[in-house]
Design brief:
alpha/beta, Spore Coat Polysaccharide Biosynthesis Protein SpsA, Chain A, 9-stranded mixed β-sheet, 46% helix, EC 2.4.1.-, glycosyltransferase activity, transferase, Glyco_trans_2-like, Nucleotide-diphossugar_trans
Length: 326
């Protein structure tokens, strides 16, 4: 008798992901869903306790690749080839599902319409996340729809400007799922250095497919970045968008100062009203957070000015470049 096909394969690419991986595997292992769930970890050369943690979960499939073979799009395509589920759900190694219903909520939109080929879940910032990142994450996902519903995005005649198209095509694979047959046979990820998820979102919308936002499929996620790493991450993201042909706004010094001032003012008001902060923590962030706004916009300005043909300059400003030198 043939084995039952898994309903979903949950894929977690890892590289030194020991901090949150155990919690992730525990949560994925207790998901309440009507069907089999396959869990696949693809590790690209971890040197911490990542592999030991995975081996504590005998039902988890571990596939190891060389660090040099990793690519954000390429590795996700490999996962779709290796996985056997009808749906391929992706988590990063620092995105922790917030409930036992996460997977069910993430794949439910596929049953609504055959044209829905990809679903993006919600991200909730960690409590210790610095305010700038916290408010940006909350703002990004708030614009996709209320938490009590599911939103479907597609391209039609109402899309008349690049701004609207950008909002419709936005996609994050930190917490996402796609139909395996589409990934394998029709619309694989592109093998790009960065922003593979943004390009995937563009490709699927331009191909006439639909994507959905499932806010109840929520994960806890925000990058644990130092002040220096945060700037390098902004640099990477902006350069990555330029490299895939996405238009990013140029920024002169005057405009940079204006955006810094606006960001500081807006975050200050949010911090003062934020019920999650104690009085002591509020004072701390009022003093520290402005430096993150400065770091953000100075890094962005460097990224829009850098010559895309200058690989050495890009590596110097890159977060990946920083980590490789440590």
């Amino acid at each position: 008798m043939p084995a039952e096909q898994p309903l979903a394969t949950v894929v977690i690419p890892t590289y030194n992901g020991e901090t949150y991986l155990r919690r992730i595997l525990e949560m994925v292992s207790i998901q309440k869903v009507d069907g089999l769930v396959e869990i696949l970890v693809i590790d690209s050369g971890s040197t911490d306790s990542t592999l030991e943690i995975v081996r504590d979960f005998p039902h988890v499939i571990l596939h190891q690749i060389a660090n040099s073979d990793f690519g954000h799009g390429k590795t996700r395509n490999l996962a779709a080839q290796l996985g056997t589920g009808t749906y391929i759900a992706y988590l990063t190694h620092d995105a922790v599902p917030l409930s036992e219903d996460w997977l069910r909520e993430l794949i439910t939109p596929f049953s609504m319409d055959d044209r829905i080929v990809a679903v993006m879940g919600k991200q909730v910032p960690r409590l210790k996340c610095f305010p700038l990142m916290k408010y940006e994450i909350n703002g990004v996902f708030a614009q996709f729809g209320p938490d009590f519903g599911t939103t479907v995005f597609y391209k039609d005649t109402f899309v008349t400007n690049p701004g609207v198209l950008g909002a419709i095509t936005f996609y994050s694979d930190v917490n996402s799922a796609a139909r395996r047959e589409v990934l394998v046979d029709r619309l694989p990820y592109r093998d790009v250095r960065y922003a593979e998820d943004q390009m995937f979102g563009q490709d699927l919308i331009e191909a006439g497919y639909h994507k959905a936002y499932a806010p109840r499929a929520a994960v806890e996620h925000s990058n644990d970045l130092t002040y220096s790493e945060f700037g390098a991450r902004i640099f990477d993201e902006t350069v990555g968008l330029r490299q895939i042909g996405t238009a990013v706004g140029m920024l002169d010094r005057k405009g940079m100062y204006r955006l810094i001032a606006r960001g500081i003012a807006g975050d200050t008001l949010r911090i003062l009203k934020d019920p999650q902060y104690t009085s002591k923590r509020r004072l701390y962030w009022l003093a520290i957070n402005p430096f993150f706004q400065i770091r953000k916009w100075t890094s962005y300005r460097r990224a829009v000015d850098v010559d895309l043909a200058d690989e050495a300059a890009i590596l110097t400003g890159s977060l990946e470049g920083q980590r490789k030198t440590k």
